[in-house]
Input
Amino acid sequence: AKGRGRCNYQVFTEFMAEQLNERLELEHALQRALELEQFSLHYQSQVDIRTGQTVGVETLLRWHLPGTGNISPTRFIDIAEESELILPIGEWVLRKACEDGVLLQQRYGTPCVVAVNLSPRQLMQGNLVTVVAEALNDSGLSPELLELEITENIFMHHAEELQLTLQRIRELGVRIAIDDFGTGYSSLSYITRFPIDRIKIDLSFVQNMLTDPNCRAVTNAVIAMAHGLGVDVVAEGVETREQFEYLGQQNCTHGQGFLFARPQPLEQLLLDDPTLSQF
Ligand code: C2E
Ligand code: CA
Ligand code: CA
Ligand code: CA
Output
């Protein structure tokens, strides 16, 4: 058993070294990605469940690394966050999304909210409100058409600092959404104390709600809570017509997921008619 333990130990360290190496390589490549213009944005439609109309899009970052291919944001956002690279990258995303948002309004002719993901470090940066205000100013996008998505974990450690920042963002006229709702560790009380416009039910609940009674209970409770608070509620990860119909019965206001649309480049999105239900 001893020998075996040593063997496992070696395998483990080798694996660790490989991971570390890969991570350092990624971080190094990430450092240059902005100047090499390897980032692009995809947009995923958000649909009004009652009318089937596209009323918003979520901005999703894409990284194309030559020789490696497309790297998922789940693999590099954490690295960007830890190395503070998320600040310049996040600002680039915000500015580009606002610019694209203006084109989207022109094409659609109906208001379409552009949602942008913000990482905790961006929320803690001192000049976030200025960065947001400048992105709006320079692009000409109406503030009420910009929505910032934040995850609830941040309320656990930084609720005080966040209060003023979110208040000032709201004063700009920008909307605030809570992303991945139900997966964080924070208490619910923040939800009554912060200026929130929208709650996004995490896809893990939505995708299991028809087969798992617990996921169904959470989904129903979040929808009811959102109605009680007078905020929109978006179900994430809607993939089937059955899920869509169930959410409609529960009076969920909005849906997002592969059933409606995949994340796609702006050029493709501009070809869509937002008033036609293509799903
Ligand atoms: P998220 O904010 O929860 O974004 C939704 C994710 O779910 C996206 O993954 C989207 O492609 C995926 N998705 C949408 N509909 C469906 C569906 O019906 N089924 C399934 N299985 N998945 C669906 P993506 O694009 O890989 O992004 C992953 C995460 O990376 C995002 O999760 C977000 O946390 C982060 N992220 C992406 N772009 C940015 C960004 O610009 N800034 C920051 N800070 N984070 C970002
Ligand atoms: Ca999001
Ligand atoms: Ca989410
Ligand atoms: Ca997520």
